[in-house]
From TrEMBL:
Pfam families: Glyoxalase. Residues 5-131, 156-275 form the VOC domain. InterPro entries: Extradiol_RC_dioxygenase, Glyas_Bleomycin-R_OHBP_Dase, Glyas_Fos-R_dOase_dom, VOC_core. The lineage of its organism: Bacteria, Bacillati, Bacillota, Bacilli, Bacillales. It comes from the Bacteria. This is Glyoxalase family protein. It comes from Salimicrobium flavidum. Transmembrane segments: none annotated.
Length: 318
């Protein structure tokens, strides 16, 4: 029962079309699934990932058009990081993001890796992390685009950042229940690792009691998910989480993977998700994300669901 690494991060957008344009045109990621929030099919759920939609590469977004702004603070998933092949790739991305007039910070080194922190057009807190010195979990398969060299392309999710007012409650869940290892820390940032480790298997916990509690809105993160092998193993995790006294969802079948949701004591929503069956269960690999995909239990409502969604069109950014 080992957590294998990061599975996906799910965030919130106010504008699905603008979100699609940015993450496909600017960031060069592949839309591998265009579907709906299974708990509220009136809203899109978009999945961007590597060339094959591999677990550990999915950055997903729920569209909630009526959202206000995010008021940043603690008890939050405060930054999502994306892996790139090496330090040279960071220089490429710095120039590319500057050309888009995005809010970016200078390249820094943290835990022996170079990183570039920036924000997307909605203020989503992001960072690119270099895999130049990575020796852990293998990256995904880079998606080929016309204007991003494959040698610089995004290749999966890097460390997920939690911001909390107190370390101990979150640390206890990560280490005692989920089996992460507290590796080290730099100032008030504590690094936890799981599975084969490296950039694809870490949580960085920022401790800052001076901040107010975050009020989520557009550009915030809803939850972070971590990888388990299969449904049989996930059922054991349901028992472990339940026995630990954490309120949880029980096993939920999301069609493309099975999931378990719970909140740790600092109110961060965590999901455990299986690696499979994968996004090609209802679409051929070469056509992923091209049409609206619905899980079987929503298929009979397709006409109603499609009528309530504003179509997303392929378009050139700016």
């Amino acid at each position: 029962m080992d957590i294998k690494g990061i599975h996906h991060v799910s965030a919130i957008t106010k504008y699905a079309q603008d979100n699609y344009d940015f993450y496909t045109e600017v960031m060069g990621m592949r839309l591998v699934k265009k579907t709906v929030n299974q708990d509220d099919p009136s809203m899109y759920h978009l999945f961007y990932a590597d060339a094959k939609g591999s677990a550990g590469t999915d950055f997903t977004f729920f569209e909630i058009p009526m959202l206000g702004n995010t008021y940043e603070g603690t008890n939050s998933i405060s930054t999502t990081t994306l892996r790139v092949p090496d330090d040279e790739a960071l220089s490429f991305w710095k120039e590319r993001l500057e050309a888009e007039e995005l809010e970016i910070e200078p390249i820094i080194e943290r835990f022996g890796r170079r990183m570039l922190f920036f924000r997307d057009p909605e203020g989503q807190r992001l960072a690119l992390v270099s895999d130049e010195n990575n020796s852990g979990i293998a990256p995904g398969i880079r998606w080929k685009t016309s204007d991003i060299p494959e040698s610089f392309a995004v290749q999966g999710l890097g460390p997920v950042y939690f911001t909390v007012p107190q370390l101990e409650p979150t640390e206890q869940v990560l280490t005692d229940i989920l089996g992460f290892t507290n590796v080290d820390h730099e100032d008030d940032i504590h690094r936890f690792s799981t599975g084969e480790g490296g950039t694809g298997g870490e949580i960085h916990v920022v401790v800052d009691a001076s901040l107010p509690r975050e009020r989520p809105g557009k550009g915030s993160v809803h939850h972070a998910a971590f990888r388990v092998h299969d449904r049989e193993e996930l059922e054991k995790w349901v028992d472990r989480v339940q026995n630990a006294g954490l309120i949880n969802s029980g096993l939920v079948d999301r069609h493309y993977f099975q999931s378990l949701y719970f909140r740790e004591p600092n109110h961060i929503l965590i999901e455990l998700a299986t690696d499979g069956p994968g996004f090609d269960t209802d679409e051929p690999m070469e056509r992923l994300g091209e049409s609206l995909a619905l899980p079987p239990f929503l298929e009979e409502r397709r006409e109603e669901i499609e009528a309530n969604l504003k179509p997303i069109h392929s378009s050139h950014w700016k």
